Amino acid sequence: MNEPVFEPYSPLNQPKPVAPDVWVADGPEIRMRYLGGTVPFPTRMTILRLPGGGLWLHSPTEPTEALFDAVARLGPIEHIIAPNTLHYWWVPEWHQRFPEARLHAVPGLAKRATRDLPPMEQLGEVPDPAWAGVIEQVIVPGGLLSEVDFFHRPSKTLILTDLIENFEPKRVRSRFWRWTMQAFGAADPDGKAPFDMRLSFWRHRKPLRRAVQQMIDWSPERVLLAHGRWYDRDGTEELRRAFRWVV
């Protein structure tokens, strides 16, 4: 088995508070297939508690019984979100453990998924009535991936998945991967969408620009990411920096 590339965001598999009714749970490193090889990624799930007490899980990470139990102690799991066409892999396992939860997916996932998935409700530009007024959302259609991004109004927290990646060089053990992440433009302190992803949005520039402007207009105070260091302050300024290739 390959040695992990990243120093973990310990403790793993445990909800960590970010703001009132907002948590992140850092998961294990995974490797994704890319151009005949595999690319390592640290993983992160976001958890929101809705006003009624139910939980909303974004990009669920590889589950363990301890993680299942820790999340369930926060409240009943009501919604499980597959936010883009890459972040869906562990949805079936979470749904098997919490079958009463509703499943929601980015448009187009059913055609692009490489494993069998249970039926899922398609996310749109209009928030689901279960979280309308609390969580806003915007669709970002693309070539390499499509993504739905969310804004938690009470905490002024923006939740992204892959549109910004911000790997910290000091946490990357491998010199090769450290160089690669820096070369692709996805390294802290100037993390953004990696170069190949930016190219894939070439034919989707207008909807991407509209979506990014909407995120900026929300004026988030913090920005949560699935990969790398997230932004606990100056969220709107970080968006302008990271999306300068768009706006």
CATH top level assignment: Alpha Beta
- Global structural class: alpha/beta
Uncertain segments: none
- Residue share in β-strands: 25-35%
Helical percentage: 10-25%
How does the overall form come out from the CA principal axes?
globular
* Main beta sheet strand tally, sense and closure: 7 strands, mixed
The appropriate CATH architecture is 4-Layer Sandwich
Termini, distance in Å? 42 Å
Report on the structure:
The structure is a single chain. 22% of the residues lie in helices and 26% in strands. A 7-stranded mixed sheet has the order 1-2-3-4-5-6-7, with helices on one face. The protein has 7 helices and 11 strands. Helix 2 links the parallel strand 5 and strand 6. With 247 residues, it is an alpha/beta fold. The protein is globular and about 45 Å long. The chain has a single domain, classed as 4-Layer Sandwich (Metallo-beta-lactamase, Chain A).
Give the helix/strand layout.
Blueprint: E1 16-19, E2 22-34, E3 37-49, E4 55-58, H1 65-72, E5 77-82, H2 91-97, E6 102-105, H3 109-112, E7 121-122, E8 135-140, E9 147-152, E10 157-159, H4 175-183, H5 195-200, H6 205-217, E11 222-224, H7 235-242
Parallel strand pairs: 4-5, 5-6, 6-7, 10-11
Antiparallel strand pairs: 1-2, 2-3, 3-4, 8-9, 9-10
